[in-house]
Amino acid sequence: xxxxxxxxxxxxxxxxxxxxxxxxxxxxxxxxxxxxxxxxxxxxxxxxxxxxxxxxxxxxxxxxxxxxxxxxxxxxxxxxxxxxxxxxxxxxxxxxxxxxxxxxxxxxxxxxxxxxxxxxxxxxxxxxxxxxxxxxxxxxxxxxxxxxxxxxxxxxxxxxxxxxxxxxxxxxxxxxxxxxxxxxxxxxxxxxxxxxxxxxxxxxxxxxxxxxxxxxxxxxxxxxxxxxxxxxxxxxxxxxxxxxxxxxxxxxxxxxxxxxxxxxxxxxxxxxxxxxxxxxxxxxxxxxxxxxxxxxxxxxxxxxxxxxxxxxxxxxxxxxxxxxxxxxxxxxxxxxxxxxxxxxxxxxxxxxxxxxxxxxxxxxxxxxxxxxxxxxxxxxxxxxxxxxxxxxxxxxxxxxxxxxxxxxxxxxxxxxxxxxxxxxxxxxxxxxxxxxxxxxxxxxxxxxxxxxxxxxxxxx
Length: 460
Fold this sequence. Notes:
single chain; 460 residues; mainly alpha; AhpD-like; 2 domains; two-stranded antiparallel sheet; 6 strands; oxidoreductase
């Protein structure tokens, strides 16, 4: 009546993939979660939807918030506005407008120059120089060489120091992988963000204006279970879980009986690496970057390409020669104190996190499955563990699951609800979110390994 346009939420809950009633409701959380919500609110000035989905796994969320807070707000080599701008550059590479919008606000809040937001060409040359590294880390990290590092460290007045570069690399990898989580869990924008609300007037006959303010969506509720979800009989899904558990048991027995030779293990890795190229990472056509987000990076046509395509051979990255534990961790900790420790803790929590359950089954050792997921992601990046039998991956990860993994890790912006629904159909949403945590951390570590190895080679 007063002519005021009232925003109404477009989404139902923090995720488009997880029904609102199955997420953790604010106000019904336990004491641990309440503390985490308070921390997140104090740090970000809001309780964002990423936190509301991640809280399925409080131990991980605590480590994640601590790391992100340190990277963005504590003492470090880079000024605060640079940190948020690098976050924008990284999220934009995957067209993740959700993260871009959050950091645009933060960038302005800490005194960043609004002109930089008109496009990367308006930012200082020093940040523009980071564009190439951002692009390669996001899409083809195996191409990074010590020459790329040298260019950044030796460009006269716009040069980066080693400590600044480590800070930038950790921020870039953090936001590339957080974009994977955002798309992989179908995170919805908050009501006050772009894409999070509509001003369409409600049908007054259905409910009154005060309902809108209280988040009741009336007519829209009938759309709460979107089309595209795959109906499946519960017997079929139960069989899926039973079959997966049976395979794990058989593989354990085979392990105990005989061990494959080193040559055979190497052959199986190459076979899996080759096969991973034929897993299509998307159901959709190429999605063009929107002008709004693409102005924050150069070379918009550059994207993920399998490393063995077009006769190009990328040497296998052997973890025995350069690993996070023995090399990357100490390099990061030396140049950016405490961050190595924080990242290490986060990797360990994601990799070892277990509640010993699988769907409706309890007291299950899931370590074999978690390792297969982690190593499959590293295999897609050309990273090999000499002591792992890559034959296990094909036994444990079916095709629809591999499609989901590859899409979320390599081209997250193409993830659909159908893909999310089509793998592990009998599993809890919290278990699928757990899968996404593994994907996020394995991806981040893979990118870091290539960047840190190049920095180490430059230094030596």
